[in-house]
Amino acid sequence: MRVRLEDVARRAGVSPKTVSRVLNDEANVSDATRKRVTAAMEAMDYRPLSSARSLAGNRSFLVAMLYDNNDNPASTYLAEIQDGVLEACDAHRYNMMVRPLRMRGEDFVRRLDAVISDHHPDGIVLTPPITDYAPLLKRLRERQVPFASVSPVSRENNIGVAMDEQLAARTMVEHLLSLGHRRIAHVSGIADHGASRWRLAGYREAMAAAGLAEDPALVVQGAFTFASGVAAARQLFALKKRPTAVFAANDDMASGVMWVANERGMKVPQDVSVCGFDDIPLASQLWPALTTIRQPSREMGKVAALQLLEVLRGRGPGRLVEMPFSLEVRDSTAPPP
Amino acid sequence: MRVRLEDVARRAGVSPKTVSRVLNDEANVSDATRKRVTAAMEAMDYRPLSSARSLAGNRSFLVAMLYDNNDNPASTYLAEIQDGVLEACDAHRYNMMVRPLRMRGEDFVRRLDAVISDHHPDGIVLTPPITDYAPLLKRLRERQVPFASVSPVSRENNIGVAMDEQLAARTMVEHLLSLGHRRIAHVSGIADHGASRWRLAGYREAMAAAGLAEDPALVVQGAFTFASGVAAARQLFALKKRPTAVFAANDDMASGVMWVANERGMKVPQDVSVCGFDDIPLASQLWPALTTIRQPSREMGKVAALQLLEVLRGRGPGRLVEMPFSLEVRDSTAPPP
DNA sequence: GACACAATTGACAGCGCTGTCAATTTGCGG
DNA sequence: CCGCAAATTGACAGCGCTGTCAATTGTGTC
């Protein structure tokens, strides 16, 4: 019925163990033998049974992608990362599973433990914001589960992928400054997310470099959601001295800002400029199209997974790869009125 | 080190086979024994090793969710379905894997075969548009892999979840009619998708019921993408006799229509009403907020998976569950000018 | 209270693969 | 050509669980 490793061995005239070695790409197999075995595998369309490989070899060929579904309900950003991770796993015949992991609650680490005990992933891909929660990282290290991160806060001792978000944010604010804006507001994200901190830092850096003192009223706390962008904008536009430009820490919040501008009859970008960060599809679908920072999410997921796979396959230590960003100037930013 | 089934058996004073029976929730175990075994499992925090269960029991505890990544790059709709499927699988301790499966190309069925041979999913959840491709369904039946579908075209012989999309579309058009619109355009989706056919049929049904002859110029073919909505709207708004309302077959296309309206200086809804279908988050983020049909995607994913799991667990035959829709009247529709 | 029958439990082999370690072959220096 | 180390190959057990089927215990009947 099913072709087993033993059948391949018989056909190639070698022992099962040798076929196993070829299957796992191990060293110390002569070229001639390897070729013969590979040919037999192909001829018989051999498909190794992963449960048997896992049981005997004590590994799962499984990569788990963890995400926080508390602040990220079905976000486009995560969907893109997932797509990239999946592509990388496929390329190396690893399976991928996605695991939501609510970050609130004390039993957070216990739930991580359960995931590991239940599924025994060979490695884990961490996505923001669970890239930097110390107890979690500690537990992963104790349990010796290799992991790679997408946009971790700390670059020390971490593999995966990162982007210079602070520089990106600074670049965005410099774009606004170059248009002539001086009263530039910032809607930040959830305070303890690395993304929020970097983007806020970039904003401050650019403002300071331009010799502008920070006006605390112009920095409003958001939560990366559309609704929080709406709330922040209501607050900003109620100011006596309104900002002429608003830089939101992500596109969803920027769309909330634009929504409120519309609501109040303010024209974007004539009356107020608005810009975001991430370049999710929404950014191009808004009117006017949103000026934002393009972050190659899909590629980042792929690269992070590849670093992890390098470790899992014993090919190297993996590294933290820096990805480029780009400023996408569209129609939501213009000189101040 | 690791707690095995055998360890639990020893502690409970029964044979391993009996523990196995309890683990698999089989009949013919006395209540007393079951209780004792369950207690031992809990006390020892026993975690069955799924690779061993799979190998010995010849099943994988895996549900694969298939989607077409050709026309659906990282869509919100799929992300929501996935979330629901995942929840259902978790509840029954099944694993979920997501598999993109490009529908173009001849080797489509061969690639499906590869997925089955490589991963041996116990069952499959099919998402639009791959719910009704005959060769694929045939192969699944040949291979005896149970499957459930989300919004299949054919309701015969299918389990999963469906919505009366035709009625929903008709309801939407009736909403436009009741506002006083008569020249109502429709931007349809990819022709051979069930969703396109139903939504178009609902449009026609409502128009006919209102005694309006169909104007072929008012029905434009789209492809479910923002760009195709833009293209369709350019065509519609170039007409001498422009429509006063446009019903797009999904929200992404509707946002394209609104974009073009903005581009041409037409006010929505004063100059033209626009509405969509699906109620993805985008719908509420647009200005004006989009009138649309709410489709409970997440819930639908969950329900479809539950039907499949009912079959996998030998609990019943599963059925095709009908989900309710709702018309979300927001700010993009109003009486004609 | 004995008997037939059903319900419950257990013994044992084996799922398909890989780790361990021993056996064999190959390559190389002298 | 021989001897030795390195490279290559194979034998075998066993990973943790479940299917099969036999043994045991419980239940109802007359």
Description:
Two copies of one chain form a homodimer. The first copy, chain A, has 337 residues and is α/β, with parallel strands linked by helices. The first copy, chain A, is built from 13 helices and twelve strands. The longest helix of chain A is centred in the first third of the chain and has 16 residues. The first copy, chain A, is elongated and about 85 Å long. At the A-B interface, α4, α5, β2, α6 and α11 of A face α4, α5, β2, α6 and α11 of B. Chain A binds a DNA duplex (30 and 30 nucleotides) through α2 and α4.
CATH superfamily of the largest domain in chain A: Response regulator
- What is the name of the CATH class of the largest domain in chain A? Alpha Beta
Mean pLDDT score of chain A: 95
One letter per element, helices H and strands E, the order of chain A comes to HHHHEHEHEHEEHEHEHEHEHEHEE
Any idea what the radius of gyration of chain A is? 25 Å
Judging by the overall fold, what is the CATH architecture of the largest domain in chain A?
A: 3-Layer(aba) Sandwich
The oligomeric status of these chains comes to homodimer
| End-to-end C-alpha gap of chain A | 76 Å
Strand ordering within the main sheet of chain A: 2-1-3-4-5-11
Main β sheet profile of chain A: 6 strands, parallel
The low-pLDDT segments of chain A are none
Number of domains of chain A: 3
**Secondary structure: helix percent of chain A:** 40-55%
